[in-house]
Design a protein that fits this description.
The chain is mainly beta. The chain has two domains: 181 residues, Sandwich (Jelly Rolls), CATH 2.60.120; 138 residues, Jelly Rolls (Sandwich), CATH 2.60.120.20. The protein is 6% helix and 45% strand. The protein is built from two helices and 25 strands. Strands 3, 6, 7, 10, 14, 16, 17, 20, 21 and 23 form a ten-stranded mixed sheet that branches. Strands 1, 2, 4, 8, 9, 12 and 13 form a seven-stranded antiparallel sheet that branches. The radius of gyration is 22 Å and the shape is globular. 39% of the residues are buried.
Length: 361
């Protein structure tokens, strides 16, 4: 039998963790040990699908929308952690539905979640079918396969997904939601028979910050050193809704280097000249999104915090009741999982002799 070079398949199906009808249920974890269903895959991406019907009962006043993406924010947070854990890297670390949608859109070049119908808080039966993607392989970088997840390197790959109920999407009101008919599917988009050379340790990481008041130098100084930070996505929320007008400037500094400067009032320029050009369709909505992508598709041009920490200072305008910064970062350690053997000068490698680069040789 000839081994296929790639495959797309469903790994497992789970029941939704919240059964019966409730106004508020709270988030409930669904753990999935991926190595029970795959062993030799090189994951380009994993895809969560939630499908079925939601039954809304009650004729009272509807709740107020939280502003989070509907229905995707039924998925509250997810984490994918591995054993062994190479250099402390967690492939997906406490990432929300909003951040997954943002990350996937900029990997693909456009948003797809607008095709998936929201659930209204009104009596009725509503079909649900939505997807959330976890991208490993980087489609816009050089040698993107080096960022993929080589499952054979791990004895455990535990995906923990927290799902909630109505309270994730609406507050107040008295209607009840029955989520019993929903199913959770995990799909794999994989490569096979890949010759592993350099394999990077890569992490998608989310952190949130509440802005208590208007501030010209709101600090984000909790990003640890030891990484290259390849991508930053600043998602600005006012009372749960993405909005412009909250972020005025992004200042990124560290180790004596300055990538973006304080006092430039650069947020609008970053949105229009960095964020929007990353999307293939220029009509896509980027309200509240400020993305600084990997420079030239090369990790050697990334924001370097390998030796010294970086500090981000934001010029932020407080608005509404709650002003929230949702920071999504991609960070990595080059060859942190595996480094390919490097040829020694003067030794034959695959039928050729590697010459020294020293003058006179």
């Amino acid at each position: 039998m000839i081994r296929e070079l790639w495959g797309f398949r469903k790994l497992t199906t789970r029941s939704y963790p919240i059964q019966g009808a409730a106004v508020s249920a709270g988030a409930t974890p669904v753990p999935i040990e991926i190595t029970q269903y795959a062993q030799e895959d090189v994951f380009d991406r994993l895809i969560l699908r939630v499908v079925g019907n939601v039954v809304v009962a009650g004729g009272g006043a509807a709740g107020a929308a939280t502003g989070q993406p509907n229905p995707h924010a039924l998925m509250n947070k997810l984490t994918l952690q591995t054993q062994p854990q190479y250099r402390g890297v967690v492939p997906f670390n406490n990432v929300s539905a909003r951040s997954l949608l943002t990350d996937a859109a900029f990997a693909r070049g456009y948003f797809l979640n607008t095709l998936e119908a929201p659930i209204p808080d009104a009596a009725g039966t509503y079909p649900v079918d939505f997807y959330l993607e976890m991208y490993f392989k980087r489609p816009k970088v050089r040698k993107g396969i080096q960022w993929a997840m080589y499952l054979a390197k791990y004895t455990s790959a535990l995906l923990t997904v927290n799902f909630g109920g109505r309270e994730q999407l609406f507050t107040g009101g008295t209607n009840t939601w029955d989520l019993s008919n929903l199913a959770i599917q995990l799909w794999a988009d994989s490569d096979f028979a890949v010759a592993a050379g350099d394999i990077h340790a890569s992490e998608v990481y989310e952190q949130t910050y509440v802005v208590p008041a208007t501030q010209s130098d709101f600090p984000i100084d909790t990003l640890p050193p030891g990484y290259l930070y390849t991508d930053f996505s600043f998602q600005m929320e006012q009372d749960g809704v993405l909005t412009n007008g909250l972020l005025n400037n992004i200042d990124i500094e560290g180790g004596g280097r300055v990538w973006t400067r304080q006092g430039d009032t650069n947020a609008n320029a970053i949105q229009s000249r960095f964020t929007r050009p990353e999307l293939n369709d220029q009509a896509q909505v980027v309200t509240g999104l400020y993305v600084i992508p990997l420079r030239d598709g090369m990790y050697s041009r990334a924001i370097d915090a390998l030796q010294a920490p970086i500090t981000i200072k934001l010029d932020v305008t407080h608005g509404g009741t709650v002003t929230l910064i949702r920071l999504l970062a991609r960070r990595m350690i080059p060859t942190g999982v595996q480094a390919a053997p490097r040829p020694t000068p003067g030794k034959a490698v695959q039928g050729r002799t590697v010459l020294s680069n020293v003058a006179g040789h």
